[in-house]
Amino acid sequence: MAQPTPSQHARSTRRFADVDEPSAAVWDVVARVDAGELATAAALLHNLHPADQADALAALDRRERRRLLDRIDSHTLAELLPFLTPEELEHVAPDVALPQLTAALDQASAQLGADVLHAIPVGDAETVLDQLPKAGLVEPLLQHDDQSAGGIMAPELMVLGPHLAAEQALSLLRATAPAPTVQDTVYIVDSEGVLLGSIGLHALVFAPPMTALRDLMEPVGPTVMTDMDQEDALKILQRFGLHSLPVLDDDGRLVGVTTADDLLDIAQQEATEDMYRLVGLVDDEALTAPLATALRRRLPWLLLNLATAFAAAAVVAAFESTLARVAALAIFLPIIAGQGGNAGMQVTTLAVRAMALGEFDRHFTRLVLPREVVIGIASGIAFGLLVGAVGWVWQDNPWLGVAVGAAMLGTMIVAGLFGLLIPLVLRALGADPALAASIFVTTATDMLGFLFFLGLAALLIERIT
Amino acid sequence: MAQPTPSQHARSTRRFADVDEPSAAVWDVVARVDAGELATAAALLHNLHPADQADALAALDRRERRRLLDRIDSHTLAELLPFLTPEELEHVAPDVALPQLTAALDQASAQLGADVLHAIPVGDAETVLDQLPKAGLVEPLLQHDDQSAGGIMAPELMVLGPHLAAEQALSLLRATAPAPTVQDTVYIVDSEGVLLGSIGLHALVFAPPMTALRDLMEPVGPTVMTDMDQEDALKILQRFGLHSLPVLDDDGRLVGVTTADDLLDIAQQEATEDMYRLVGLVDDEALTAPLATALRRRLPWLLLNLATAFAAAAVVAAFESTLARVAALAIFLPIIAGQGGNAGMQVTTLAVRAMALGEFDRHFTRLVLPREVVIGIASGIAFGLLVGAVGWVWQDNPWLGVAVGAAMLGTMIVAGLFGLLIPLVLRALGADPALAASIFVTTATDMLGFLFFLGLAALLIERIT
To answer: Which residues contact A119 (CB under 8 A, 6 or more apart)?
Structure first.
């Protein structure tokens, strides 16, 4: 999401106790619109913080939102739009009249322009671009994947040549009107626009006035290319503890910058995606998505889950005659399945999160695989002995204890191995390592766990009956 | 974690393709130390980016790390320490000689000072504080919970009175030597230190020289109190799209600031915590934690999981006589359990993530609960019909199809309800809503699912046999 300008924070002086709840004033605006009191609603809205204004707009129905939008000036609109989530923006942006939207975007950052143009129909986006004075800043962002550094970068920067003296530099910056997105850094480029270094505004202001920028600047630190995935840009920013990261084109020219606050939103999105995908949910589902959308998105994965559950059931079916002789065997199926599934999901969760944070590969070959095998064996022995003893005492049969205990050991080892292998295989196939991993992991542990247990029980059937 | 100063980024000009791997130079340093070539290792280390230096130190064994530390100057140490993870810091910091550590912390931010003092024994921390010239900046941070805004804030700020003219203000700032943590904002306070407003350095530099700060400043926007939980501070920073958030004491005095890049680390930690807790993993386990630690942390949760699995097994045991008459019933247990558990975990994951992002409460009463019930019923009907039909055809018995189909419907409704209720109850009890939620949810769906299915089968037993 694009960043708001400082002036937007001016209207809220409240301190926060319950941060989950928007202010009551938001619901007041919504109630006034519902009651048809549009003039009052617009006046109330005008006094809110833009974040609250955005909440109010997002909470309205389409028809009522349109009525309220007619009463909002383009400056207010420009200030509140950055506070809509990408999902809300897709609902709200198409409701704004195109001339009003164009006027708002002219007062907003190029990042917001690109976000909004992604959210409205292509034909409308072209109309807005045709009319937009700052189209030249927005268009380059649209040419990049909206998940790449080039798609999320801010192009509004303080950029100067290396030969200027500090004093001249400040005069020049004073002459260039609008506030840049990164306000604490001046970038130094050569005549081709290739990045040579940077200098903090703080350092520039306090430097000897006649010193040339090339003598003041810091060399170029970590940079990213326009086509780098935003997740990788996030990893670099975090690895090097930066506030902002210059974005270069193929020729090394500075074309924009990504910042920690942009990437914070992305970090949250990516974490949400991983958590959702682990249990077979689609990325952008929220608890408030429309019912039909929610069903359409969840049912296919639950269907896949069902298909894999039938695979586990088929293993049980193969041993129906064994179960017919000793019905008590069925009692232990949920124990095998529950324990194996949970142990497997623990390993998968660790692996998926380590991959997302860029902490996976550097340790993997040396440490992780052998370690998970050892953990699987150790916890398998512990739980195998425990479950075996319980099985023996409960069913008063030592051989049943042996079967369930040995099966538990095997299942825990399988859980460690598959819990690690499934995200690895998904990633090697070019899929997200979290993609429905829970479904695949529990299927593996169910099938192999049942096979171990019922297979052993079948072998020992004369002693168990 | 504390922020590095800009000069630290100077040494790395590489562009990044594989961001998961530290540079080969890191392993080179480690190899030289292992080979006893300490002088070469120290020289190589000196040329690395501090992030890579930190990786090299973290990768060494304790004894070898101590030998290398002896050859590192305190300035280099001050630059690399911010790049250690909290876990790595706990291993590395106690290995540094106290005089060297004190000298390093004097050149580092107060945030880093607090992080390091948390990571070493209390007695050592007191010794360092006694010797540290900037102890006055570090001590206030130590008095707050290290998960609170007061514990993570940076106290190094540009702070001025309201009556100064812009020109005077710049001269004064020039006279105060060290670079502040937030370099783009000057905070305006009254004679008591109470925050009155702020002005961007960018705006200050380009303001008419004789204008008073009180006429230039923006009013106070969102702020947080020292004792606010860092997660809530993160939500506010995100909600209002800010780069930084002033931290006030009980009297409204400005005592520090938290920034987007600090909170980015926290956002990642919190997401990791939630993902881990959902499957019953303890917060700070990593794939590389020592084996004994990993076992000690995972076993208790797996033991809890086992206990709950026995509860589900007890339900099956209660129907042993039914299973003895129709062994084929056991085939359907994994289907009921697998489908109910996955559907429940989908809802729990949605709820936990919505709570973490502060998006839960405002929609809950109006939308979420009724919606999840409807989704449970709709998917329950769909899967009930499907599984019932398969059960009928597979086992050639319509009544078995009825039992399994109806049980599936009941299980899906239970999954939606418990998937939502369990995180709510955990939160109401003051626990983390994600705490081992998967274990509780799957236990509920297993037990009730088995009860529905085997109970119905027992009622229909004459028709099923």
So the answer is: A86, A89, A90, A93, A94
- What number of other Cβ atoms are within 10 A of residue A59's Cβ? 19
Determine the residue of chain B that is closest to A299 in CA distance.
B379
* Contact assessment for residue A372 and residue A420, using Cβ atoms and an 8 Å cutoff: yes
Closest of B56, B59, B79 to residue B2, by C-alpha: B79
Paired tokens of B150: 């007061």
Residue B390 forms contact with A (CB below 8 Å)? yes
Q: Kindly state whether B296 is in contact with chain A, defined as any CB-CB distance less than 8 angstroms.
A: no
Best residue in B293, B329, B342 to probe A by mutation, most A CBs within 10 Å? B342
Asked if B279 lies within 8 A of A346 by C-beta distance, the reply is: yes
One-letter amino acid at B191 equals S
Spatial strand order in the sheet of B218-219: B158-160, B185-189, B195-200, B218-219
User: Does B241 contact A at CB distance below 8 Å?
Assistant: yes
The pTM is what? 0.75
Contact B310 A239 (CB under 8 A): no
Q: What are phi and psi of B244, to 5 degrees?
A: -150, 160
Whether A215 and A208 have beta carbons less than 8 Å apart is answered as no
Residues from chain A contacting residue B183 (CB–CB below 8 Å): 184, 200-202
- Give me A170's structure tokens: 């400040």
Report how far apart the first and last C-alpha atoms of chain B are (Å, whole number): 66
The one-letter amino acid at A128: V
Q: Chain B 316-375, CB below 8 Å of chain A: which residues?
A: 316-317, 320-321, 323-324, 327-335, 337-339, 341-343, 345-346, 349-354, 357-363, 367-368, 371, 374-375
Residue B123: predicted pLDDT: 93
Which is higher by pLDDT, B150 or A276? B150
Among candidate residues A134, A187, A113, the one with its CA nearest the CA of residue A157:
A187
Contact predicate A70/A42, CB 8 Å: no
For residues A44 and A26, what is the distance between their CA atoms, to the nearest angstrom?
Answer: 9
Dihedral sign from CA coordinates of A201, A207, A209, A212:
negative
Which residues on chain B are in Cβ contact (under 8 Å) with A331?
313, 316-317, 320
CA distance B118 to B110: 12
Per-residue pLDDT of A383-419, as tens digits, reads 899 999 998 888 889 999 999 999 999 999 999 889 8
Can you list the positions of beta strands (E) in B294-418?
none
CA torsion, points B244, B249, B253, B254, in degrees to nearest 10? -20
pLDDT at B3 over 50: no
Interface probe for A, chosen from B275, B293, B381 (most Cβ of A below 10 Å), is B275
Whether residue B30 contacts residue B56, with contact meaning beta carbons closer than 8 Å, is answered with: yes
Residue A13 in this model has a pLDDT that exceeds 60: no
Question: Does A285 contact chain B (CB < 8 Å)?
Answer: yes
Interface touch B362/A21, C-beta < 8 Å = yes
Residue B286: what pLDDT?
61
Separation between Cα atoms, residue B339 and residue B409, nearest integer Å? 11
With pLDDT > 70 as the criterion, what percentage of chain B qualifies? 90
pLDDT in tens, B177-214: 556 777 778 999 999 999 999 998 888 888 888 999 99
Chain A residues closer than 8 Å to B363 by CB: 287-288
CA atoms of A406 and A332, how far apart (whole Å): 12
Inter-residue contact B78 to B108 (CB < 8 Å): yes
Pairwise CA distance, residues A7 & A4, whole Å: 8
Question: In this predicted structure, which of A208-212, A301-305, B443-447 has the lowest mean pLDDT?
Answer: A301-305
pLDDT above 60 for B254: yes
Among chain A residues, the shortest Cα distance to B277 is held by A346
pLDDT for the residue numbered B249: 93
Strand partners, B68: none
pLDDT of A5: 39
